[in-house]
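Protein data sheet
==================
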Amino acid sequence: MPFGRYKNPKIVDETNLRLVRGALSHARVIGADFSRALDFARGDALVYLDPPYYPVSDTANFTGYTSDAFGIDDQKRLAEVFRELDKRGCLVMLSNSDTPFIRELYSGYDIQVVYATRAINCRPERRGPITELVIRNYR
């Protein structure tokens, strides 16, 4: 999520942190390139991938959470990792923007349209629900 400006952010939410700790007690969370999932994922794994979304227009230029952009080649590499995880028997779920390019990359998989609300846009009339994709190798 892009850095925001908050008047009174709740930095420590002890109750929520304890619940998250319990939910993730058997999970492995790694801070690394997404391809590292291939080093750990076995057939009984559920892998959720939430990359920087592919731009929906020429002016939509948020493509990363770091100074390195997440471009077309990265999206293609991500699709290759998705397919490899599928071959290994993992349950794989990915979210991304609803564009012809993303639909093409994941054709053959279960593609569901979901609606997400966007409150940030330089043009107020473009704020509101937009379509996104949830792509899975299972139903």
Summary: Strands lie at 46-49, 91-97, 110-118, 128-136.
